Structures are given as C-alpha cells and as structure tokens.
Amino acid sequence: MVREFSAGGVVTRRIRGQWHIAAIEPNRSETARKSALAPVLALPKGLVDAGEKPDQTAVREVFEETGLTAEVITKLKDIKYIYVRSWGDGERVFKIVSFYLLRYRSGNIGEISQEMRVEVKQALWVPLEEARQKLAYKGEREVAAMAANYLAEHPQP
Fold first, then answer.
1. What count of other Cβ atoms lies within 10 Å of the Cβ of residue 147?
2. H-helix or E-strand spanning residue 124
3. Phi, psi of 42 (to 5 degrees)
4. DSSP states along 1-67
C-alpha cells in the first residue's frame, strides 16, 4: 500500500472579537458525480515536499491555498486514513495528515495565484464556533474542536 504524508493548518484570527479560521472550498472536477459536486469546506493542507518538515508544509500550504501568512503555535493532531485514488492507478493509499494551529500574521484571504485556482475555488474566514458544523471531514471537525479548546485555555496565542 502506498503511503502519503501531508500537513495542514488551522489559521486563527480574531475578527470583531470572535475567533475565525481560514477554510477553503476545493475546486471539484466537472467529471465527478453530482453528489461529489456539493460544496465542501476543508482546511488547507498538502503533501510534504522532500526536505520539508510538516510544520513548514502547513505554513506553505496555508499561504498557497489561502493567501495568508501565518506562524505555528502548536501541533494539534495527526489524522490517519485510507483512501482509494480516483485518478490514474486506483491504488489504495494510507495517508497521515499532521495539523497545526497557526496564528494569522498578514495577507488577504483568497488572494491566491492563478495556478492555485485549479485546486482552490475560494478561501474564506469561518467563525470557529461554526467550523465544527461546516467542515466536511470528520477529522478536520475534530481538529477545529481542538483549536477551539486550545484558544479557550490560551486566550492570547
């Protein structure tokens, strides 16, 4: 079985006194099933490049997919799952995604390169209290809950 290692970030920012996180809506293929075309909100993440540490990947992927510059506060969790590639070889893949809590530093959400628009339809701020209902994937909802708990215990990250 093929193994993949990815990393992603939960970028936090206070907007009008309320915590928000950066989320993305991935661009979905027109050839996908209609049920697969329903809007999906996810956390920014991507494959760890050779010579890169997972926390560096999280910061890079956040910038590429959202347009935001952020810094690592702490590691939240590794999510592990198996999926079957829907392209090419149809291979089963064991995947580990390391998620990090990140602090927003600068940038305008959604200002991403034209090349990245192939992957990302839009990036947006989502109130953290709503993220656990709006994120599409169970593991990412758990990561958002962990981020909320961390921020409650450390009000000035």
1. 29
2. strand 120-127
3. -140, 170
4. -EEEEEEEEEEEEEETTEEEEEEEEEPPPTTS-GGGGS---B--EEEPPTT--HHHHHHHHHHHHH-
Residue ranges and CATH numbers for the domains of the chain are 2-153 (3.90.79.10)
Structure tokens at 69: 């510059």
Containing 130, the helix (H) or strand (E) segment is helix 128-134
pLDDT of 36 above 90: no
Joined tokens for residue 74:
């702490």
Question: Which pTM was predicted?
Answer: 0.91
Quote the percentage of the chain above a pLDDT of 90: 85
Confidence band (pLDDT; 50, 70, 90) for 30?
A: very low
- CA–CA separation, 6 vs 143, rounded Å? 15
Long-range contacts from 32-41, C-beta under 8 angstroms, 24+ separation? 40/136, 41/126, 41/134, 41/135, 41/136
The token pair at 92 is: 């089963």
Span 89-141, pLDDT tens digits: 889 999 999 999 999 999 999 999 999 999 999 999 999 999 989 999 999 99
Query: Residue 78 phi/psi, 5° resolution?
Result: -100, 130
